[in-house]
């Protein structure tokens, strides 16, 4: 969720004292807040930095102050659609919702996603957030509706298709899940959730050619991801591409010499190849 809500504020130029690290940047912003505790930009920036550092409760607290110090307080009223919040402030609401979701404060997360949706009705991200919460709560029909809304608003929203794929998997509609994972990967070849989901479904359905392609594409940019390498080696073996499977398995063991599954697979491949040679 962090990637989605980084749109919360514009990237202003900041002067930092100390190391150019998240902690150093946070320290610089906190110094600004000592001089002006209601500084909207500093509060927002601090909230984002804290979010990226995994300090979600502190992040939400800073972002809440940013909202309350601006016209954003109206966004959390009974009629948030009447607010004059800017798109940047809508993004702050999304960041807050993501923080609350991370610490399992579901009701607060939903409230802020709904507020962001009311302020920015053409934005897909709030629907994705609401769909994710519904999915976690086992409300599959509601989750599917939110993800469909997100995809309709933003046809290139990979997260929407990934969410729909998981819903279909839960319903054991493997063909539909396959299509949604595939659509997600066509938009974002680095989506690991969709990649591994497609791998699982491919093993069930016995259709490997498309997933092999996406695994290969992913590994060109992430060549040391041994989990994905193992998936690829397994599929090569199933497709009788034994030499390719052996090569990839040896790559895995060069990165993780103690990986037991890869060692077993290599032994099986060596035995099969020796039998073929004889």
3D structure, described in words:
Mean pLDDT is 82; it is low at 1-18 and 71-85. Helix 5 runs antiparallel to helix 6, helix 10 (174-187) packs antiparallel against helix 11 and helix 14 (242-255) packs antiparallel against helix 15 (260-277). The chain has 278 residues and is an all-alpha fold. It is built from 15 helices and no strands. It has helices at 2-5, 22-35, 40-52, 56-68, 87-102, 106-119, 125-136, 140-153, 158-170, 174-187, 192-205, 209-221, 226-238, 242-255, 260-277.
Please outline what is shown here:
With 278 residues, this protein is mainly α. The chain is 72% helix and 0% strand. The chain has 15 helices and no strands.
List the helices and strands and how they pair.
Layout: H1 2-5, H2 22-35, H3 40-52, H4 56-68, H5 87-102, H6 106-119, H7 125-136, H8 140-153, H9 158-170, H10 174-187, H11 192-205, H12 209-221, H13 226-238, H14 242-255, H15 260-277
């Amino acid at each position: 969720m962090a990637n989605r809500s980084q749109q919360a504020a514009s990237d202003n130029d900041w002067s930092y004292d100390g190391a150019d690290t998240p902690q150093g940047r946070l320290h610089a912003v906190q110094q600004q807040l000592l001089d002006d505790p209601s500084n909207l930009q500093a509060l927002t920036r601090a909230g984002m930095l804290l979010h990226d550092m995994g300090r979600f409760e502190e992040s939400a607290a800073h972002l809440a102050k940013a909202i309350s110090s601006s016209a954003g307080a109206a966004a959390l009223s009974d009629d948030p659609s009447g607010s004059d919040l800017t798109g940047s402030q809508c993004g702050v609401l999304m960041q807050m919702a993501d923080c609350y979701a991370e610490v399992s404060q579901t009701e607060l997360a939903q409230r802020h996603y709904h507020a962001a949706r009311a302020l920015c009705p053409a934005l897909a991200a709030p629907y994705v957030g609401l769909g994710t919460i519904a999915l976690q709560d086992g409300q599959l029909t509601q989750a599917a509706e939110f993800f469909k809304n997100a995809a309709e608003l933003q046809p290139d929203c990979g997260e929407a298709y990934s969410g729909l794929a998981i819903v279909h998997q839960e319903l054991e509609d493997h063909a539909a899940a396959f299509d949604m994972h595939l659509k997600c990967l066509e938009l974002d070849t680095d989506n690991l959730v969709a990649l591994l989901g497609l791998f699982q479904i491919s093993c069930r359905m016995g259709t490997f050619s498309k997933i092999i392609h996406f695994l290969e594409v992913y590994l060109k940019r992430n060549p040391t991801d041994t989990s994905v390498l193992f998936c690829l080696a397994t599929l090569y073996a199933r497709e009788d591409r034994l030499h390719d499977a052996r090569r990839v398995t040896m790559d895995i063991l060069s990165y993780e010499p103690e990986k037991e599954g890869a060692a077993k697979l290599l032994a099986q491949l060596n035995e099969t190849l020796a039998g073929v040679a004889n």
